[in-house]
């Protein structure tokens, strides 16, 4: 087992260049592609996952992969630094924090440093969004933020962002926009109700 130390963040395009190639054209791709990002609990059960590859076409095959990866990594010491393993021709970068296990999977020809930067960006964003309370309970209570976080990191297998604070900022912005929209809708409904009540009063 090789320990991967990544004390800094590098935007993926500085290492590999921009890419607009779809995932199914992997052979032609000139940039790293992510197969999946997994967040599991200390028993190997799902907290939040995103798949971007057809390697696991069914939910049962995905659950099987998650159990396999968990069983092969659970006894390792990946709490101080991220570690790397090669399983079934896939490079997997992973890190454990409290009762949460973070995983990023790429093909065996992918750049490990970039995969590690995706993992670190995901972890840093989650740490900020959960206000340093990185555990399963907090994750489940804020699952919507975590899913938004995954969407900000990777789209269709292509890396969008690896900077944790920037990812968290985008997620927070989306969340605030949604809350603002809901508040505006609530105020509008309240005004409509009040106006209808006033109209009925005047007509009496």
UniProtKB/TrEMBL annotation:
GO CC annotations on file: COPI vesicle coat; Golgi membrane
Main location: cytoplasm
Subcellular localization(s) per the UniProt record: Cytoplasm; Golgi apparatus membrane; Cytoplasmic vesicle, COPI-coated vesicle membrane
GO biological process: intra-Golgi vesicle-mediated transport; intracellular protein transport; retrograde vesicle-mediated transport, Golgi to endoplasmic reticulum
Domain AP complex mu/sigma subunit: 34-173
Gene3D superfamilies in the record: 3.30.450.60
InterPro entries in the cross-refs: AP_mu_sigma_su, Coatomer_zeta, Longin-like_dom_sf
One Pfam assignment: Clat_adaptor_s
Role of this protein: The coatomer is a cytosolic protein complex that binds to dilysine motifs and reversibly associates with Golgi non-clathrin-coated vesicles, which further mediate biosynthetic protein transport from the ER, via the Golgi up to the trans Golgi network. Coatomer complex is required for budding from Golgi membranes, and is essential for the retrograde Golgi-to-ER transport of dilysine-tagged proteins. The zeta subunit may be involved in regulating the coat assembly and, hence, the rate of biosynthetic protein transport due to its association-dissociation properties with the coatomer complex.
Subunit text: Oligomeric complex that consists of at least the alpha, beta, beta', gamma, delta, epsilon and zeta subunits.
Family: Belongs to the adaptor complexes small subunit family.
Protein name per Swiss-Prot or TrEMBL: Coatomer subunit zeta
């Amino acid at each position: 087992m090789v320990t991967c130390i990544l004390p800094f963040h590098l935007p993926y395009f500085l290492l590999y260049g921009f890419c607009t190639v779809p995932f199914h054209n992997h052979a032609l791709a000139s940039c790293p592609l992510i197969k999946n990002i997994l967040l599991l609990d200390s028993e190997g059960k799902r907290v939040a996952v995103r798949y971007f590859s057809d390697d696991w076409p069914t939910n049962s095959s995905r659950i099987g992969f998650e159990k396999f990866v968990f069983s092969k990594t659970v006894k390792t010491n990946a709490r101080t630094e991220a570690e790397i393993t090669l399983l079934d021709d896939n490079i997997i970068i992973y890190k454990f924090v409290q009762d949460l296990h973070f995983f990023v999977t790429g093909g065996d020809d992918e750049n490990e440093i970039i995969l590690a930067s995706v993992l670190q960006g995901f972890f840093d964003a989650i740490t900020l969004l959960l206000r340093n309370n990185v555990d399963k309970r907090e994750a489940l209570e804020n699952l919507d933020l975590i899913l938004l976080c995954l969407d900000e990191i990777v789209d269709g297998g292509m890396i969008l962002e690896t900077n944790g604070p920037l990812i968290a900022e985008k997620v927070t912005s989306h969340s605030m926009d949604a809350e603002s929209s809901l508040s505006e809708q609530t105020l509008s409904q309240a005004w409509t109700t009040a106006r209808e009540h006033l109209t009925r009063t005047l007509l009496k």
